[in-house]
Design goal:
alpha+beta, globular, two-stranded parallel ribbon, two-stranded antiparallel ribbon
């Protein structure tokens, strides 16, 4: 977890790296404070592998407190069957992101 400022610096660095296709920096608020998680690099945490669907999301991220620290967890939006792909809405609607990643519309 990092500050939003550090997250923006990482995104800027990723944007100029010709070997990297995009970044997966997630910003969220918890108790009136902003936080950032960088899921761009492999980390062993499975949350970074959850795919996007604006129309068919079946889970949603929610910040919770664990041992006095903010954590991001995913909660089911509906009954999820064995074998269903877990999907959530990334929430990125910026014009440049949608142009570069048209799948954000679906």
């Amino acid at each position: 977890m990092m500050s939003p400022e550090e997250g923006r610096r990482k995104e800027e660095k990723y944007d100029v790296d010709p070997d990297r296709f995009g970044s997966y920096v997630f910003y969220f608020r918890f108790r009136e404070r902003c936080y950032c998680i960088d899921a761009t690099a492999e980390s062993g945490r499975l949350g970074r592998l959850i795919n996007h669907s604006k129309k068919h999301a079946n889970i949603a991220p929610r910040p919770v407190e664990v041992d006095g620290k903010p954590r991001l967890v995913f909660f089911a939006l509906r009954q999820i069957q064995l074998g269903d792909e877990l999907l959530y809405d990334y929430g990125d609607r910026s014009k440049i992101s949608v142009i570069e990643n048209p799948w954000l519309k679906s």
